[in-house]
Amino acid sequence: MVLKDPPAGVPNPLQVGEQAKIGGEGAVYFSTDDRFAVKIYYHPRPEKEQLLQQVMKLFSNLPPEQERFILPPLALVERLDGRSCVGFVMRRVPPRYTELLNFVMPRGAAEHFRRGRTWADYLKIARSIANAVVVLHGKGCAHSDIHYRNFLVNLEAGDAIMLEIDGVVVPGFLPPQVAGMMGFMAPEILTDGVSPNERTDRHSLAVLILHTILFRNVMQPLIEYDEDPNRSEELGWGRYALFSEHPRDHRHRPSNLGVPFYRRGALSYRMLTPMLQRLTERAFLEGLREPDKRPSAREWEEALAFAIDELWGCQRCRQHFPYPYERPLGERACPFCGERCRSPYPLVLELHEERQHGSFFPLRRIVLGHGFKVFADMIESSRRPPFSRQSEPILGHVEWDARRGQYRLINEGEDEWIALSASGRFSARKGGSVPVQKGCLLRFGEGKRVAFVVEG
């Protein structure tokens, strides 16, 4: 295979195997060294090669932390086996990555849970999906076809990679080539013929994120709207599109909503963190018919990143779920098996960050229990949870003092920690600890965040 001006690191000619993976608009070949994949189009439009060149230019020189989420074209193909053709080279995704569809249906999710995976893994996948869209929207373009067949994922690593970058949309520059997949398309595409854009992407992204972490399409119509099945489907996703958990209209509400997942129930969005609940309501209640009100990909990514620090473990089924601190104690239960949360309940800290000299503003909440670690990104200013904490410094941990019936924070860092409460002022340097109780104010050192103990 002969390429056109490939970048450094891409061999020319490129040796590919004879076996091709057949797709809808083209065939995909793999290089013999397993480093690259090549897509060759069956019947390309006359302008296809020019569009590919523009896409290549758009995504050239991406930093590694962005390129990991997408598969941009690296070079165009000139000839295959001596024949002129239209296609492009991209890096090959490792075989351990498979279609997201295999993981996000209830039966598939339950099977992966039996193999030892947890809901926290799905939360990381959802964050990776949001990050891929952040990269695209940051370049001023839309994907136009966001759904569970256009992402390859590694559940164990919590990674997702977006496919079909060759069809991105830039208003007035790169026209849409597809309208999207039914079930993920924004309703205005079906009702008003709106061309795919960044705002329609926002709807598709919200549907996919919720499908990934709730294992169902939250916009699924449950009644027929026309005798013609195709027309009924178009109406159900378009004119009569309705959030399944609309507070007043229950037409599309599953009968098993809120029943624990392991009892063949359907997970409710109300099991999510308060921040994710609010984004869901903006996407499907406020923004369903008003696209400008839909949350951005960046907002979803941030909320999903923060959610990882609000997880609690069920003492019965060992599943992880967002600790429902906003509910009364008697109503706090595992959404997977239904087991009530039991004492000792976790610490709930509200992190505050200094924005102006001496003025602190609430940032987010974290949930901590016995044995939980306090990572540097939790208490250092302007930090967000990284994708992996394998190399993140551990500055402390939490211990439950059963004799006194209270938690203690053990300092493993260099800064002095101070706890201010109605009981007095307590301080601890490296190796020491401070008692923690509700209403306590925690200081982690100069220039660090402070934490207010909401529950403890």
What does this structure look like?
- By secondary structure, the chain is an alpha+beta fold.
- It has three domains: 2-91, Phosphorylase Kinase, domain 1 (2-Layer Sandwich), CATH 3.30.200; 98-313, Transferase(Phosphotransferase) domain 1 (Transferase(Phosphotransferase), domain 1, Orthogonal Bundle), CATH 1.10.510; 345-455, Tumour Suppressor Smad4, CATH 2.60.200.20.
- Helix content is 23%, strand content 23%.
- The chain has ten helices and 22 strands.
- Strands 1, 2, 3, 4, 5, 6 and 7 form a seven-stranded antiparallel sheet that branches.
- Helix 4 packs antiparallel against helix 6 and helix 4 runs antiparallel to helix 9 (297-307).
SSE inventory with pairings:
Elements: E1 2-4, E2 21-22, E3 26-30, E4 36-41, H1 48-58, H2 64-67, E5 75-80, E6 83-84, E7 87-91, E8 98-99, H3 106-114, H4 119-138, E9 151-154, E10 159-162, H5 187-192, H6 198-214, H7 229-237, H8 274-286, H9 297-307, E11 311-313, E12 320-322, E13 347-356, E14 359-368, E15 373-375, H10 376-379, E16 394-401, E17 406-411, E18 417-421, E19 424-428, E20 433-436, E21 441-443, E22 450-455
Antiparallel strand pairs: 1-5, 2-3, 3-4, 4-7, 5-6, 5-7, 8-9, 9-10, 11-12, 13-14, 13-22, 15-16, 16-17, 17-20, 18-19, 18-21, 21-22
Helix pairs in contact: 4-6, 4-9
